[in-house]
Amino acid sequence: MILKSLRKLAAAVAIGIAAFSIATPAVVLAQEAPATETAAAPAEKKADAHGGGKDKTLIDYYRLGGWVMHVIAAASIFMVWFTVDGFIKTSNGKVYPPASVEALRNFFRAGDYVGAYNFAKTHPCPVCDVVRAGIAYCPDGKTMTEEAMLSELDRVKAGFDARISYLSVIGVCAPMIGLTGTVTGMMGAFDALGKSGAGDAGALAGHIGEVLVATGSGLFVAIPAFITYYLLRNRVTKMMHDLQELAASLFRNMPYEELAGTHIGDEEIYAAKPVWAEATTAPAGESTPAA
């Protein structure tokens, strides 16, 4: 019940962030200020053209930020996607589903390791993958079994790290994208200053506004991306410890001696006797190759 509530809350937050990031025109920063139509001078008309006569809405700020706002908006959407996906994929119900854990425990209690292997193979999830790798190497002894499970744990962790690392990439790139908008905005500001001097304050203010909006938008995306990345990284670390403890509890007192020489599962064993060992057992009268 708590997990479902958290999922609903995360979805609601994600929708809110996405709506804010893509600058939905329906959301406004303030109501338009009342203005009286008078015979305006040319300078006043220019100020109105740059939005000086009214409070700006989000869509106005989005347009003011320039072309980099499209890239930042796309980055914000990806940030929301990887955030929601990361929290769902690392939830307890996905990593070690209670039904799968209880089924594996019942197989181990009954000593049905073939059944446990088949169940783990037909119900893929991190805990089943780790247990399946351990069962497959049980005939090779305790050391090989533990190494196989640790290797599988590393593979699972690498998969999660690869997904959440995109949040770190977004956190690093978003300010750089905003800085690109800062550079282009300053170029436009100096260009306007060189053409018309300080007299055209409206054009100069528009380019300076582009600089500030682009920089602020990049930080607005980067900060939550970094926070979410470290939260998910710590979550994955704890999840790996829980998986290792769960697997260790299942394989405690495993009868490795009784399983020695058997073959559990359908994984092919590639290593065979060396060819020279087979040659030494050749029938009498046949020559054997020199070493």
Provide a concise account of the structure shown.
This protein has 291 residues and is an all-alpha fold.
Helical proportion, percent range? over 70%
Q: Please state roughly what percent of the residues sit in beta strands, choosing from under 5%, 5-15%, 15-25%, 25-35%, 35-45% or over 45%.
A: under 5%
**Structure classification:** mainly alpha
Overall spatial form: elongated
| Rg on CA atoms, Å | 32 Å
Mean pLDDT: 75
The biggest beta sheet is recorded as: none
In the residues, how many domains can be counted?
A: 1
Low-pLDDT sequence parts: 16-53, 287-291
Termini separation: 69 Å
Question: What is the string of helix and strand elements?
Answer: HHHHHHHHHHHH
- Helix count equals 12
Number of strands: 0
Can you characterise this structure?
72% of the residues lie in helices and 0% in strands. By secondary structure, it is mostly helical. It has one domain.
Q: What features would you highlight for this structure?
A:
291 residues, single chain, mainly alpha, elongated, disordered C terminus
